[in-house]
Design a protein that fits this description.
Elements (H helix, E strand, L loop, with lengths): L8 E10 L3 E9 L5 E10 L2 E7 L4 E9 L4 E5 L2 E3 L6 H13 L1 E2 L2 E4 L14 E7 L2 E2 L12 E6 H9 L7 H16 L6 H14 L1
Parallel strand pairs: 4-10
Antiparallel strand pairs: 1-2, 2-3, 4-5, 4-7, 5-6, 5-12, 8-11, 9-10
Helix pairs in contact: 2-4
């Protein structure tokens, strides 16, 4: 691979804004070609995790919630921020239990993602959970309002792929990664689900 593309040099960095949820850094950078780029802003949020959660019947466990950034209500996988010192897998299991009352038999990691690496270094950790069952009530934080909803995995996949309004791109990427993982899994118990996924993806082409 060519080494012509190299990282920028950070000549100066200052924190323009910082609270418990967000840090905005303003950098003075120099490119490998010697061009100085002033006032390059990056925004750092806490890393977060989300869970594509399947029940034994291959329904997906979702939450219905309001997202103020776009002032819309979304149906989405459960998830949330990873606390300081917390492992991503532990955070995913905790968020699943708190937001839905479900626990999974086991989880597998999906690719770690950046939403917009030019500006946001925050990482999103996705997991695919199998054998999820409801074990108790939700344990929501103050200000959280979430409705738990289940539906066939392939119905939600199709809805996301065919949505008329903008969707959460990170959740769609995790959902597609989960579908690819399922299609490649050597598990006869997933054969029916695999056929349904293949039907959805074929319809999209």
């Amino acid at each position: 691979m060519s080494d012509k593309i190299r990282p920028w040099e950070v000549l100066e960095r200052r924190i323009s804004f910082q609270d418990k949820n967000l840090t905005i850094s303003t950098d003075l950078c120099r490119t490998p070609g010697g061009v100085e780029i002033p006032d390059y802003h990056t925004m750092t949020f806490a890393d977060w995790a989300a869970v594509i959660t399947l029940t034994p019947e291959h329904d997906i466990v979702l939450v219905r919630t309001y997202r103020h950034g776009v002032e819309r209500i979304f149906l989405e996988p459960p998830g949330g921020r990873i606390d300081d010192g917390e492992e991503a897998l532990a955070a995913a299991a905790r968020e699943l239990r708190e937001e839905t009352g479900y626990e999974a038999a086991h989880m597998v990691p999906l690719p770690v993602m950046h939403s917009a690496p030019g500006r946001f270094p925050t990482r999103a950790f996705g997991f695919l959970a199998f054998g999820a069952r409801e074990v108790g009530e939700q344990a929501l934080e103050s200000g959280e309002e979430l409705e738990v909803h289940t539906m066939p995995f392939t119905d939600f996949l199709a809805d996301m792929l065919r949505a008329a309004e903008p969707v959460n791109g990170m959740h769609l990427a995790m959902l597609q990664s989960a579908a690819i993982h399922i299609l490649g899994a050597e598990d006869e118990g997933l054969d029916t689900l695999k056929k349904s996924i293949q039907g959805v993806l074929t319809h999209q082409t």
